[in-house]
Amino acid sequence: MEVKVKNLPESRVELEISLPWEEWKGEMDHAAESLAKQVKMEGFRPGKAPRAVLEQRFGRGALLAEAAEHAVSHSYPKALEEKALDAIGRPEVELGTVKEEETLTYTIRTDVMPEAKLSDWKSAVKKINKEAGKEPVAVSDQDVADELARIAEMRAPIITVPRKALDGDTVLVDFTVRQDGVVIEGGKSENHPLVLGSNAFIPGFEGEVAGMEAGEEKIFTLTFPADYHVKHLAGKPAEFTVKVRAVQEKQIPEINDEFAKMVGNFESLAKLEENIRSGMAEEQKTKRKEEQRTKILDVLIDGATIEFPRSLIEEELGRMLREFESQVQMMGMDFQGYLNQVGKSEEDVKKDWEPQAKKRLAAHLVLDAVAKELEISIESDEIEAEMNKTIQYYKNVKDIEKNIDLSRLYTAVRGQIQNERAIAELEKIS
After folding, report:
1. Closest CA relative to residue 313, chosen from 353, 269, 271
2. What pTM, to 2 d.p., does this model score?
3. I want to staple 4 with a disulfide (CB 3.0 to 4.6 A). Which of 16, 194, 369, 394 is the partner?
4. Continuous segment of H or E residues that includes residue 401
5. How far apart are CA 106 and CA 95, in angstroms?
6. Which domains does the chain have, with CATH numbers?
């Protein structure tokens, strides 16, 4: 087999593959077997019709065409392996003239996984790492006090009070929103909890509810903001009918030793404060580490040259769309309904997300390039150990085979380990 490679723009290649007759004539038998399985022939069991009978029925040309297809499907992966090409997407196949006892030549154009060409990144990464270690981790007494206040508010019981609604109260309301006398989509709710001061509704709504008390009903008109996410409502007035069912307030507990025992069985307030201070310090360290990693990746990406094939971008956008769709559904919303609300199609969303998709892809590609440059190697037992953490949740081998593509999982886990090790090595450069 002879393989010629021509590089094309946007991380595509053209392969011209030539197979001498001696290398593909055996496919004639495979073609006969394949044709025999596809048709029923009187007097023969399925798949058992002799080659001569098949040739008589379909003609020699049909058998040659089938054999050529088999030859392409068997030789193409070998050609990729020979030239160390990582093909992605659907290839375009152009078959030459197929003649018996002659060389079979065909052309394939396909996208290949791009490689990031890195610029001189070491001095920039050294500077980032040097800056990252300068500022000490510090948790002030005010930080601890603010966190205590936040915990106290979270733990505060909510009670119904017989008075007018004030800022900070939770008000249970029934509301209906109408335009031209018609209730808008999603414009009706009962017993809805509204926290005054949260700005959860359009401007002016909370101001109208403030001062109302249980049993009171009110009708008022407000205009939706010009930049409101539901396009057909933006900048337009609507009539709101609101009835207050209950006014509730939080009873903030006193922050003392008893509070500390209630929160987490701490023996004193001082012990709780110590725990909070330690936890906040760790959060600061984690946040700074993430910021450091983000800066390093940004430097690598900004200095890299990458040609993205269209199929890779589309694959990443599809993955992002599926992730977002799951998030929307977890919030109890229909994805298509969400798109209708924001006035966008899937294609609009994908267009908006394309820069983000390219950056996500670039992050993996630059770390892959760094791993090669730093000669980072991953042992198979490391990969298998991580894979087992996923596999262990399935009952048996059959269950695993049904739910998991082990080859794809192996590749994904290897990439995760390699990326983590590459970024860890980058953080050490000084």
Report:
1. 353
2. 0.70
3. 16
4. helix 397-403
5. 4
6. 2-113 (3.30.70.1050), 157-250 (3.10.50.40), 289-427 (1.10.3120)
pLDDT at 315 over 60: yes
**How far apart are the C-alpha atoms of 114 and 13, rounded to whole Å?**
11
What CA–CA distance (Å, rounded) separates 320 from 315? 9
**Residue 204 predicted with pLDDT over 70:** yes
Among the residue ranges 57-66, 170-179, 211-220, 409-418, the one predicted with the least confidence is 57-66
Helix (H), strand (E) at residue 43? none
β-strands 237-250, 158-160: how paired? antiparallel
pLDDT at 54 over 90: no
Name residue, tokens 């924001």.
342
Residues 14, 85 contacting (CB under 8 angstroms): no
Which tens digits make up the pLDDT trace of 96-114? 888 888 999 999 999 999 9
Q: Is 178 helix (H, G, I), strand (E, B) or coil?
A: strand
Among residues 164, 159, 260, the alpha carbon closest in space to that of 212 is found at 164
Confidence at 255, pLDDT banded by 50, 70, 90: very high
- Collapsing DSSP to helix, strand or coil, 83 comes out as coil
> Quick one: tokens of 427?
């953080």
Distance CA 399, CA 397 (A): 5
Token code pair at residue 172: 């249970």
As a whole number of angstroms, the distance between CA 271 and CA 219 comes to: 52
